[in-house]
Design goal:
homodimer, mainly alpha, Arc Repressor Mutant, subunit A, 2 domains, 3 strands, globular, DNA-binding
Chain lengths: 152, 152
DNA sequence: AATATTTATATCGTTTGCGATACAAAATTA
DNA sequence: TAATTTTGTATCGCAAACGATATAAATATT
């Protein structure tokens, strides 16, 4: 049995598992408002800057538009946002929050704190989080560049 | 706009993105053999220890059996493994590798090295990987315990 | 032994995620 | 201007994930 194939030596399996479990930790908090985790991500993007085209949202989340489009349609059905043809560019679909979508921010105020406290542990503290963020950001940047080589 | 809702301050979004991108990095290497990343995980579990019940595989991967069962069925259709009723306990389904499943280990020999080199970067090196693994393992253990409180 | 409970898998329905492809609008080129 | 290419979204199909539920086999209880 080669060491390289041991599950305990895999970075990807750790990321995959940590991601799934952390998403599960969000689940009870978000489902109170009928939201899923990816939908919550869309909300965070739009809370930062409302009225964005589908493409910008997809880019910000590093997802493909064929993932984001159905996600947005489901959120539109829930009355969280609206999708309207762009005026400047008729190809674009501009996504805007409804009042319900804006109000969700207040209703979800304590979600970040609750989830944050659920993650804190011996090796993950306010002191070590910056290092963890740095490593994850580097990994993301490196992989993103390989899949999608950037200009310059 | 509250700081807590900024995408750039989210651990979960980083884990989610890093996990997706790293899985995508595996994709071209695994699809050569008709495999997906979760199927590759199952193979690693069975290479470590062949002939395991569905439940043990699910526990090792920290997945639910309703995720693993269809995964195993697809792999059975591909001739990678067999599913047979347990002799001791007739409720169990014992999953065993076929010769094809065993041979895949040789065919995939250089996958870990290739993916490993795709991840290495300034802040993620052989020196810092243990610290990263430690933090991810702690997060996983903490979250696992909250969802699924362990005895003792 | 008969009944109730637990355990091991499986089925069903919904939401993601993504490769491949389609299509219309905009930009570029001939 | 007409033809070509590029860009922005959407559609389709497939493989996860997972909550809720079902079913059969094993275990515990009465």
């Amino acid at each position: 049995m080669k060491e390289q194939f041991k599950l305990d030596n895999q970075l990807c399996f750790r990321l995959y598992t940590a991601s799934r479990l952390l998403t599960q930790a969000y689940h009870p908090l978000l489902s109170e408002q009928g939201l899923t985790y990816p939908q919550y991500l869309v909300l965070m993007v739009l809370w930062e800057k409302d009225a964005q085209p589908v493409n910008d949202i997809a880019k910000r989340l590093m997802l493909e538009t064929n993932t984001v489009t159905p996600l947005l349609k489901r959120m539109e059905l829930q009355g969280i946002l609206t999708r309207s043809k762009g005026l400047a560019d008729a190809r674009q679909v501009i996504v805007s929050l409804t009042e319900k979508g804006q109000n969700l921010q207040k209703l979800l105020t304590d979600v970040p704190i609750k989830v944050g406290s659920a993650v804190l542990c011996k090796s993950v503290t306010p002191d070590t989080v910056p290092a963890l963020f740095g490593m994850l950001d580097d990994i993301i940047a490196k992989l993103d560049n390989q899949v999608n080589p950037h200009e310059t």
